[in-house]
Specification:
Elements: H1 2-9, E1 13-20, E2 23-33, E3 36-39, H2 41-46, E4 51-56, E5 67-70, H3 71-76, E6 78-82, E7 89-92, E8 118-123, E9 132-144, E10 147-152, E11 164-167, E12 173-177, H4 184-205, H5 218-241, E13 245-249, H6 251-254
Helix pairs in contact: 4-5
Length: 262
Amino acid sequence: MTKELISALRSGVVRLAFFKDSEQVGSGSGFLSNGFLITCSHIMRRYPFDAIEISFGDQNSTPITPIRYAIDNLYRCIINESLESEYDYAILKINEPELQDRYQFPIMYMKGEIVGEQVLFFGFPFGSQHLTSHVGYISADFWSNEIHIFQIDGSINPGNSGGPLVHIGSGAVVGIITRTQTGLEKDFDDLVTAIGNNVKALEQSGRGAKMTIGGIDPIQATQVTMGILAKLSVNLKRSANVGIGYAFSSEHVLKTGLLKEE
């Protein structure tokens, strides 16, 4: 049943790739429902980007040219949004033929005792172009600052944010995957940013006169080291997040009145 469910849903899962001056600077996930594209607000606001490419979870079997929007056009598509400091969702209306006949996720607000319910969650972690599917359980159900949160016994990684949390029994979306709430999240983000800034500074300094010590170019050697550190930092961040993840309950987007509840 789970295999068939994943196959049926994947065309409605969305991959979001953000670009700055033709370089990809970030990624996220989303899903289609009731004719809208739903994702997290922090994805739309976090990266310094000038364009976005939209593709889908079934692109390996039915490839399409990614839908590309300039940042101004993309923001005009946002019809309702709650910032990361609130309920962290963005609802977009995108009128493109590539979205026709794709799976539209039903949405449901789960009430009562839900700890132990089996769920699926989808996304494109670490900028992957291939849809990743996970099976897990809701391990905790709680409120924090008026936000209804589900804790999942599964790993949520950068790029998963905005993806649907699907209740296996009903096939309906019951939550939107958000960023992990580990204390290491910001530390690793800061480290990766610092390494990136150092690499850029080294590239600029390396454009001048060349210098070698013992036959080794110290700038080039440091660039290689920084590249290794950057990869290591991403992998350490991923390892630190294994075993826990969070989603905000779908009730927050249902309260907008734009979406029909299953």
